[in-house]
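yo

u said u wanted the structure for the complex thing, so here. seqs first:
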Amino acid sequence: MSRIDGKSLWLHWAVLIVLFALNFLLPEYHRGVVTRVLLLAVFAMGYNLTFGYTGLLSLGHAMFFAAGLYGAGLTIYHLGWSVWPAFGAGLLAGIVLAVVVGFLALRTAGVAFMIVTLMFSQVFYLTTLYFTTYTRGEEGLVLPVPARTLTVAGAEFGLTDPGTRYMTALALFAVVLIATAFLVRSSFGRTLLAIRENEERMRMLGYDVFANKLASMAISGLISAAAGAAYAVLFGYVGSGFASIQYSILPLLWVLLGGAATTLGPLIGTLLTFYVIDTASSYTSAYMLLLGIVLILLILYFPRGIAGTVRERWLPWLP
Amino acid sequence: MNYKAKHQIKPDGGITRRTALKGLSTAAGLMAAPGFVRYAQAQSSEPIRIGFQCHRTGIGAAYGRWYERVTSAAVKRINDQGGVNGRPLEIVIEDDGTDAARGSEVVAKFANQHKVDLVYGTLFSHVVVAAAPMAGELKIPYYVVSEGYHVASGKMNRYCVQPGITDVKAQVRSVAPWIAQNLGKRVTLVYPDYAFGHDHRDFFEPAITAQGGEVIAKVPIPPTETSFTRYFPQIPRDTDVIYHVMVGPAVLTFVKELGEFFGTGGPQLFGFIDSLEAVDINSPGLEFLDGSHFWEGMPRYAQPDIPRYAASYRETVGIDENGASVNDPNDVSTAGHMFGCWETLYVIKAAMEASGYRGPEDRASLIEATEAMTEFPAGNEHPQGAKIFNGQIHQVFAEQCISQVNGGRLDVVHRTSIEDGMYEPEADYTTMSF
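structre next:
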């Protein structure tokens, strides 16, 4: 692991402290919104690792999110598991799926990689529908409230409590943010960046490009699955809608808006997208059109996303 | 006000004229403040706010458009007649995009931002199932108009109620005897291969078997399918009746291809109007449907023996003799389902009046008052017909219509009894805590 410079480290801590404080400052509705945004930002951070740092444009990350969602949800619903082992099952499902899909999909590149990941994701989506007997397909399952209790050091926390839910989402976000911040500055992270910039040169220099990409996919799948598993236990619902193509496009959108290959970009992009939709949908049914316009404007004037452009123009130290 | 006044009292108990004037002006200012006015009016005329979770966009948009129209018409009528407990109803609409995740967010938005009294109006089952946990956690009543079995199954929570439309299990049980007696006993099911279709599959088979019939083949169709002809060869030759139900944007293609495959010489057809809601039955390519039968929750076409209250309902919501908008004959309604909005709003009104509902602190009482209801007589409040409500499973039961396509319109040929659809409760919400 290489060090993160002081400014970056302080910025990350400041963001986490602000997010911690928001739990006590935000009105109830917005606290709930930020809870969801934190989880979805974790998903976006997972996506950012492959797309932003490794240069792999996947259109299938919904399957990793959904693997975590179903891994946790189905074990709670059908096997009566408690939160921790169910969360572990979600992580395991995500990383196993990511390794298998990565092993096959990484034999392709560019547009072919997009198509292959998209098709794997569709297979996963249709599988959740095929096994409707167990998953209830698009209708989904409601996880029983008593099962949504987190036990930490003997103390029990009900995950239906908004404050507990916020803090749990923040804890996951903080772990993933710090971990990815260190990861992308490590030799492994720099290897990924170098592969993104010039894959052939890295191969010529003796790096195992395939292994590094596969590791990137595995970690990305693990993080995405963590977001999905947390979503299941925090919001008590598991449904195949989360495996649909929409949830493969969304993290791409969040990362593009926030700034690819920036550690805070996923959070910014997710937050902005959520509030654009949330606000606009109260006034017009054409809110996705508005989001499209925002995206076009951002790409025209902030081609590297918000955090990416800020880094390029004003704060070169921004992680 | 009291706090300030208390601290303006001199230690010796005397009050100067200056402090008295200050106190009075402060009191006047507080009373004029918007918050105080709202509080004071809450007991008298402040609107009861209902959050309408509407499918304005997404796969349910056609339903959402008509649910919104019916809701507006019912609320106007209720308000014109004096409101609820002397207070007008106010509808706050949020679009959920017919999306499960967004549905849950919208319920939270209603409860925590709009501060509505209750949430109402959701149709698509995946949205209901995803949003119900949030309604339960926020302890806000959630009156759905969804049709799925999820509410009656007991898998939701104390706050989730369906008092305006029957569920699919009751619908299927209602029509099975008539199908066996009139169309045939050897049935092939064609249904969408997801939860809604599985409910039809799982509930119809025992219902038709109980009538001496049998399901000889099941043809599930993947929900992403856009072309259906290749599935039809799976239908056995000796099928008496094809029982079909599809939803979503491809329904018209499905029905057309069914007609192209069988022409007019195939097995009897029995469909659920879900396949053709918001679709003109006289659309080119649907001629083969002539003579076939459909389940309808409420007749789309005005029937010769239409009760006065049903005619009044149709006029108020703005549909013509053919079930299309009075403003646009091409804008066909979702008449088979949308009455559920009207009736649900009247159940909410009745429950609020029975419980003496004043505000969010009475939400539990509102649910208890709803659970205590047993019968809804046919009339202006329940234009679809009389109903029996089972408070244990939060589900209403009603008569169902079986209609035949005759010369480009649907004529009701049989009305089932309420009891035809009733079943033993598999849950009891009333034993759950709030």
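Chain A has one domain: 6-244. Residues 258 and 265 of chain A are 4 Å apart (CA to CA).
cya
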